[in-house]
Design a protein that fits this description.
Chain A is mainly α. Chain A has three helices and no strands. The radius of gyration of chain A is 17 Å and the shape is elongated. Helices cover 66% and strands 1% of the residues of chain B. Classes of the chains: A mainly alpha, B mainly alpha.
């Protein structure tokens, strides 16, 4: 086994570990958002907005999980820019949702 | 010694068992559910692009429609006396009812817009060519069914807006040729009573159209599976090997679709949050007289055509025939545009026609939205529609010149080899001019002369009015002069084109050196 192969495998393992961490975090975010959206009082118009915002958080988290898994599978690396953009988007939605709670 | 299939599978399993948590989890599901079994053909890497999946997004919108519509069916009663009350109940009393209604409407809008984008993208990259002609025809029928969803669903809340607009639509059917008019009216309205009409619309919207769309979807998916994803217009050879490789439907393409679907869902939800739907007043005969009926945005372009003075009253059958001809031409496009090339560079005429169609539909829709109930004079219609077509054509000519450095109105396969090139040396033998190119150029020249005569007449009229003190004609005068200028520029350009053989103008006016290229 050459040094180059060893380095490549080490990179793949590191990427895989990073992906597991990102996906775990996103799963937690998705689970919390699902819990919050079903806990909101479903009658007022403000709570409808909260429901919608946390549903959007859930969907964005799912999209990011798919992106991470696809990137690892196709390229063996994960692009930073889409992840940062997705995290910012989730953050804005969560803050807006909490503000309306 | 060669490894057998079983050996390879065994190796794969061992590899997966040594992989990370995600790989092992996927492998576990894969081995139990057979997800990686090649039921569907793999897709090329270059298809990992949202423009390749506009139809899939429209299908996702259809699924969301099904889910939200199914929930609303639990409360809705298709009867004129209860339709509005039950819709109002959904808005006010059902959990997240307003959100549900808003999502249902906005995904319907998204579905129509995505279907239109899917069609136009297919038109521009020529997916309708051999062997996908019937896929195009089926797709067009699916597009009509999608519009049918919009038309039938619009009436169901029984509001003043929806009922008035639907009545106008049904009234227009009377202008169609008689056997067709009575059959269509009977199919849609039934006995003619309000309850009969609502029940028919409900049946069509909830049972008939979804069933038809599902059948057509299966047929189209089968054909897609048979022919595969369409190749890039420049051919697969133009792509790097990495883009050409095939990727399996599971997990790569599936994950990409999940990604697109989730982002699409999130976008629709956010738009629903920012612009929540309100319920207009209930329909009543008394209120209907005070309200200006106007269709939803996707029918506004047709509505605007029908408002042109020439198409009113006796001219209505002509207008309906024009609209019907546009639809027929779209359906039969694969049998009209029969050139073999798919390269945009060689399809200037069809690309320009497509761009004119999109621009005219957009202009008519916005115009219709801004002028509800107002009749449009023939002159204004000619000015706006003709001006839009002329402008798009000029932009197209300039864009082709800038991007490709030359013009190819007709594809090589249709005999453009006879078109002379400006860049060719004068000593080179001059090929015979293409007959179709000459006809095309002369046709445009006649149109330009007609437009020139019209704009000159209009400008003189406006100047006379201005001299007599009517300052309100200034905008019209500006438009007429702008139209006249464009016509003059176009006429000069085409004079030059007709002079390509002798080169007399070309030698003197270097700025106009735009020519045919082999």
């Amino acid at each position: 086994m050459t040094a180059r192969q060893t380095s490549s495998e080490a990179y793949a393992v590191a990427t895989e570990r990073m992906a597991v961490r990102i996906v775990s975090l996103l799963l937690i975010v998705a689970a919390v958002s699902v819990f919050v959206l079903w806990s909101a009082n479903p009658t007022g118009s403000g709570s409808e907005t909260t429901f919608a915002l946390f549903l959007a958080v859930d969907l964005v988290a799912i999209a990011m999980i798919s992106y991470v898994e696809r990137s690892v599978s196709e390229q063996g690396s994960i692009g930073r820019a889409p992840l940062i953009a997705g995290c910012c988007f989730v953050l804005v939605l969560v803050v807006a949702g909490i503000y309306l709670l | 010694m060669e490894a057998t299939g079983e050996d390879s599978q065994q190796e794969g399993k061992v590899e997966n068992e040594n992989g990370g948590l995600v790989a092992r989890t996927l492998s576990w599901f894969d081995s139990r559910l057979g997800l990686s079994y090649q039921l569907l053909r793999p897709a090329p890497q270059y298809s990992i692009n949202p423009f390749y999946w506009l139809g899939a997004l429209a299908t996702i919108a259809f699924v969301i429609q099904g889910v939200t519509g199914g929930i609303m069916l639990l409360y809705y009663v298709p009867n004129p006396t209860q339709a509005y009350a039950t819709t109002q109940y959904i808005f006010q009393n059902v959990s997240n009812g307003t959100f549900l209604e808003t999502i249902h409407l906005y995904t319907a809008y998204a579905m129509i817009m995505l279907a239109f984008m899917h069609m136009m993208r297919g038109y521009f990259v020529s997916v309708h060519k051999k062997p996908r002609e019937l896929m195009w025809v089926v797709g067009m029928v699916m597009g009509f069914v999608t519009l049918g969803f919009g038309f039938t669903g619009y009436l169901l809340p029984w509001t003043i807006v929806s009922k008035s607009a639907t009545d106008v639509g049904i009234g227009m059917m009377g202008a169609l040729p008689q056997p067709l008019a009575s059959s269509l009216t009977f199919l849609i309205v039934g006995s003619g009573t309000d309850s009969g009409e609502l029940l028919r619309f409900y049946d069509l919207h909830v049972f008939v159209l979804p069933a038809v769309l599902l059948v057509l979807l299966v047929v189209k998916m089968y054909m897609l599976e048979s022919h595969g994803v369409s190749e890039p217009t420049n051919g697969v050879e133009s792509l790097p090997p990495k883009k050409r490789r095939l990727i399996p439907i599971f997990p790569d393409v599936s994950f990409y679709l999940v990604e697109l679907a989730a982002l699409f869902g999130a976008a629709v939800i956010l738009i629903s949050v920012i612009f929540p739907l309100g319920l207009p007043p209930e329909y009543s005969a008394a209120l209907a007289g005070q309200y200006v009926a106007q269709p939803d945005w996707y029918f506004l372009w047709i509505y605007q055509i029908l408002k042109i003075s020439a198409f009113e009253e006796a001219g209505l059958p002509i207008a309906l025939s024009v609209v019907t001809l546009i639809f027929i031409a779209l359906v039969l496009l694969p049998f009209i545009d029969r050139g073999k090339t798919r390269n945009i560079r060689d399809r200037m005429m069809y690309v320009t026609l497509g761009a004119i169609f999109v621009a005219e539909v957009a202009v008519l829709a916005v115009w219709g939205y801004r002028t509800p109930g107002m009749a449009i004079t023939d002159e204004t219609a000619f000015l706006v529609l003709g001006g839009t077509a002329l402008l798009v054509t000029l932009v197209s000519v300039v864009a082709y010149r800038a991007v490709f450095g030359g013009l190819r109105v007709f594809a090589k396969s249709r005999g453009s080899q006879g078109v002379p090139s400006v860049t060719a040396s004068s000593s080179a033998p001059k090929p015979a001019p293409s007959k179709s190119a000459a006809v095309w150029t002369s046709g445009i020249f006649v149109v330009l002369l007609t437009a020139g005569a019209f704009f000159i007449g209009e400008s003189i009229n406006q100047v006379v009015s201005l001299v007599l003190g009517a300052t309100a004609v200034l905008p019209s005068l500006t438009l007429s002069l702008a139209g006249l200028s464009l016509t003059v520029v176009g006429t000069l350009y085409f004079l030059y084109r007709l002079d390509l053989g002798s080169g007399a103008i070309r030698r003197r006016v270097r700025a106009f050196e735009i020519g045919w290229k082999e």
